[in-house]
Amino acid sequence: MFIYGINPVLEALRTGRVSALRIAARNDDRFAALLRIAGEKHVTITRVGSGELDRLVRGAVHQGVVADVREAQSVTVEDLIAHAMSSTRFPGSSGAPLIVVLDQIEDPQNLGAIVRTVDAAGADGVVRQSRHAARLDGAAAKASAGAVAHVKVAEVVNIARALEELKDAGVWTVGLAGEASKRYDEVDLTLPTALVVGAEGTGLRRLVRDRCDWLVSIPMRGQVNSLNVSVATGIALFEALRQRQRKGVV
User: Fold this and answer.
1) Exposed end of the chain (fewer CB within 10 Å): N or C?
2) Strands (E), 109-163
3) Among 72, 63, 70, residue whose Cα is nearest residue 22
4) How many beta carbons lie within 10 A of that of residue 173, not counting itself?
5) Distance of alpha carbon 108 from alpha carbon 135, whole angstroms
6) Contact in structure between 115 and 142 (CB atoms under 8 Å)
């Protein structure tokens, strides 16, 4: 598994997941910081030509560095809930889980952007299906600006069953659906919440929709009647954060 780009590699180095670096000639402060941390972590560094990196990442923007990384430690849905309830992420937090569930998000740019937003909002992690899902390396790691190194991701076989597991643990499941009559800001997101988002174009699958406690929409004012899935996820997450801050439960 490999990732590329200054920010993703820096964050992976900080979490101790990088096993080796391949770098091309570059001279700036961020690159120097990256090399310093790699040295402190005793990571093997190989200097190569930029063309070799281009071939490795198939023409993506690598910023002169590609890292071999170890797979993140696997977590379960139960682990995400327990992590939230322990209130260790933010001292004084309410312990009410805030989780994002991805239903067949296959585009790596969307996946990376969602993971970045989950981290920015201080949510407790992501649940996604192990099949029909974008990989968490390469383009997704780059789009996340390195957040994939920090956000906990639970891989499950079946999203509908994962929703049942969340509900059994007292977590309310809120699905984003463009045609829903209830607005996203009309639901109490200070409760233990899992936001459920589907792929662009198809949205949530029927079995997933049926297992959501609420279906909510984000009102559109313009001519285009939908949002990019990562943008919609960000709006809902920060509405949850706004509600929780207002009640003093974050």
Assistant:
1) N
2) 125-129, 153-156
3) 63
4) 22
5) 7
6) no
As a dihedral over the C-alpha atoms of residue 240, residue 241, residue 244, residue 246, rounded to 10 degrees, the angle is -110
Give residues with Cβ within 8 angstroms of 61, minimum separation 6.
4, 5, 142
pLDDT digits (tens, 9 = 90+) for 45-76: 999 998 999 998 988 889 999 999 988 888 99
At residue 6, the 3 state secondary structure works out as helix
DSSP code for 148: G
What is the C-alpha to C-alpha distance for residues 216 and 188, in angstroms, rounded to an integer? Answer: 12
C-alpha torsion angle, residues 172, 169, 72, 236 (rounded to 10): 10
Instruction: Report the pLDDT value the prediction gives residue 134, as an integer from 0 to 100.
Output: 80
Cα–Cα distance for residue pair 112/126, rounded to 1 Å: 12
The two tokens of residue 75 are: 């977590």
**By C-alpha distance, which of 184, 113, 138 is closest to 4?**
138
CB 194 within 8 A of CB 163: yes
One-letter amino acid for residue 102 of the chain: L
What type of residue is 181? S
* CA–CA separation, 130 and 218 (whole Å): 28
The two tokens of residue 47 are 């200097």
Prediction pTM value: 0.89
Report phi then psi at 75, rounded to 5: -130, 160
